[in-house]
Specification:
The protein has 5 helices and no strands.
Length: 360
């Protein structure tokens, strides 16, 4: 049974660890850039979106590399199974040829025995009289019969030994094949579990990072809104309590107050400023909700992709298990046929009578 070596996944894990470190460094730089007072952008961060696109492409590349690695393992496994199947077919052909050869020998021996009996029957009577021919005594008849019986017993013992040896080799090959299949399945299972753990860890880190970034942005917007409201309140208080509006200024004469149209215009301007501030706050909250929704959509897409891949792997394992079950049934049927049909030729008296006739 041919075997092959599976390429270790140490290089791939090392590359993935380095890639995680690089991604963490890029995310740290992105946080510093976004939270910087002079370089942050309000609204859609195009640089961040481009960085997310690059990260997604890199994740797809790593996933494709993992898929290629698992495909190589599956190809090697299928190649080994094909070689074993070819070897099994070759052994079956050899067995069939041996059986046919043995049957031909039996037919030849049977024809030879029939010819000897016919030739002996024609010479039983004397040519001149009706009496049988006197064959004389055969003093070595008992020894010759004993030797023939011993020869038959040795032949039967050799046949039984060969049969038991072939069955032992078949059982050993089956045990080796089962052990090999078990090792391959264990290796694939360990690799899939390690890949699943890495994906879960990456997803958890991404979700945690997005959550922290969202909280920081919401806290920053809340502080900015509070500062704007405080500045607006301070400006409004200073304007309303100033000496000019309260007739306390001496700029060429006493201030007699605003007209009704001027007061109405001041109130309209204040109302407009308050409305603009409220619109800014609403727009910031809408942007925060849109960003959170975008991150949630990305997370759900990653979860759906992971579930689809897990379902594909589960189906592949089921197909492999079904294939092994079919092979086991085929093997059982083959052995049943050999035990119940091929190896059931019972030895009769006719078989023992064909030995030693030509020497008499």
């Amino acid at each position: 049974m041919s075997a092959f070596r599976v390429k270790p996944a140490l290089d791939y894990l090392e590359r993935e660890r380095i890639e995680i470190e690089r991604r963490r460094q890029r995310e740290a730089d992105r946080i510093d850039r976004i939270l910087h007072a002079k370089t942050r952008l309000y609204g859609v961060d195009t640089l961040a979106l481009e960085q997310q696109v690059k990260e997604k492409q890199e994740r797809e590349r790593l996933e494709a590399e993992r898929n290629f690695y698992h495909d190589d393992v599956a190809v090697l496994h299928a190649r080994a199974i094909s070689e074993q199947e070819a070897q099994r077919q070759t052994e079956d052909r050899k067995t069939a040829e041996e059986i046919n050869f043995f049957r031909k020998l039996q037919e030849q021996e049977k024809r030879r025995k029939q010819m000897i009996e016919e030739s002996a029957a024609t010479n039983l009577y004397d040519s001149d009289t009706l009496f049988l021919k006197f064959q004389g005594e055969d003093p070595r008849h008992a020894a010759r019969v004993k030797a023939q019986q011993q020869q038959q017993q040795d032949w039967l013992a050799a046949q039984i030994h060969d049969l038991s040896s072939s069955e032992g080799r078949a059982r050993q090959e089956d045990a080796d094949y089962d052990a090999y299949q078990h090792d391959v399945l264990e290796l694939k299972k360990n690799q899939e579990e390690e890949a699943a753990r890495v994906r879960r860890r990456m997803q958890e880190e991404t979700v945690e990072f997005n959550k922290q970034l969202s909280q920081q942005q919401m806290a920053q917007r809340s502080r900015q809104a509070q500062m704007d409201q405080a500045l607006n309140d301070m400006e409004l208080s200073n304007q309303m309590n100033s000496n000019f509006l309260n007739e306390g200024a001496k700029n060429g004469g006493a201030f007699k107050g605003f007209s009704s149209s001027q007061r109405q215009r001041i109130l309209d301007e204040q109302h407009q400023q308050m409305q603009e501030a409220a619109d800014v706050r609403q727009r910031q909250l809408a942007e925060a909700r849109a960003y959170d929704q975008q991150q949630e959509d990305i997370r759900r897409a990653m979860v759906r992709a992971d579930r689809q891949q897990q379902a594909y792997k589960t189906q592949a394992l089921k197909n492999l298990q079904l294939e092994r079950t079919m092979q086991a049934k085929e093997k059982t049927m083959r052995y049943d046929y050999l035990d119940n049909v091929v190896y059931t030729g019972s030895v009769t008296e006719e078989f023992f009578d064909k030995f030693g006739k030509s020497c008499r």
